[in-house]
Amino acid sequence: MNEYIIGIDIGSSNICAAAGKVDKHAEMQIMGITSSSCSGVKRGIVVDIDNTSESIKKCISSLERMVDTKVTEAYISLPGGISELILNKGVVAVSSEDREIRKNDVKRVLKASKIITIPNDKEIIGVIPQQYIIDGYDKIKDPVGMSGLRLEVDAQIILAQSTVVNNIFKSVNKAGIRVRGVVFGPIAVSGVVLKEEEIQRGVVLVDAGSESINIYIYEGGHLRNISTLPLGGNIITSDIAVCLKIPVSEAEKLKIKYANIGMDSHKDDFKIDINANYNNKVKVSYNMLNEIIEARVEEIFSLIDKEIRISEYYDKLSGVVMVGGGMALINGVEKIGKNILGKLVRTGIPKYIGASSPLYATAVGVVRDVSDSMKLKNSMDMDLSKDDDLPDYKKIIEDEDEKEKEDKGNRFISKIKDFFTDFF
Length: 424
Known about the structure:
With 424 residues, the chain is α+β, with helices and mostly antiparallel strands.
């Protein structure tokens, strides 16, 4: 089991799990990836632990068959939409007599940066250093080995509601998986779909799920802003079902198979036979289907555009990258996005064999991020349980084995053309 790194992404409609391995060339390879449907999560928050746990079990069982090994531990992603970023500074004196900065000094300054006042219902999940400052000299990425008297850090403190995070942990534990650590979702995704040049110059990462859309703004090499829209791909499916008077399950199938928006004209119209209620077959117009989808996608992009424009980074942004299964899989979505956002739009696809889908970006990103941390320690065969030097946002919040024992006894709407008035 130790040769594999397992990453789990718990989404609102799907659980995705990826198994990766570091090869002899110190490169990470994805050895297996799979997903299963889930209805126990709403907008990144677990609302049904039993349902979520069963979905995780099903997903992990499928992954075990792929990699032919028993999976008992994993890293999970922490959604950015349920988190909050706070900027803070930490300051310490260099402890060694020769004034050389060592790892312990870095740990102390990061700990100092976490001394802030937080609400009772929230907790610090981790800290992301933006820059280190030595005796007034800033923009230092790695101060270890340098000399100085005073070490400072400008850091982003990640906060999340304790109950939300604990329920995610409970769901994974109940599925028989021990959580070895957490990876902050925006960090995971950006590592596999964004280029370093984009992060430096300025880019928007849009993670569109089934019930929420997380918008991450990067600039100057750092995550600058997080915002969330309370709608996602499910609202498109709902529009199709309501307008065409068909079951939601059939509407989802139509969306996945026939969605093709952004065309200048729909000349090649044809009828699609689908099963309606009581086994009755109805014919649906291909052009009408895509007009319904396009109308809602335009509205969603308008809301995304509004969120981006109210930030101070709009003029610095070079483009928009889309991931997730809510919108990124719709054919033609890049063209609609470019027209509305006024920025280049592309779909973010992990460059790994067998995982080249925006749906798998977060799960692959978790595996990639843990793999990179292993490389930093220059020990490809390290014991993953010894994670003292991993980035802070990977730390396990508490001993989940003990926690599991304790728990066993406690069981936008805006206008979108005029479709709805046409159909009713």
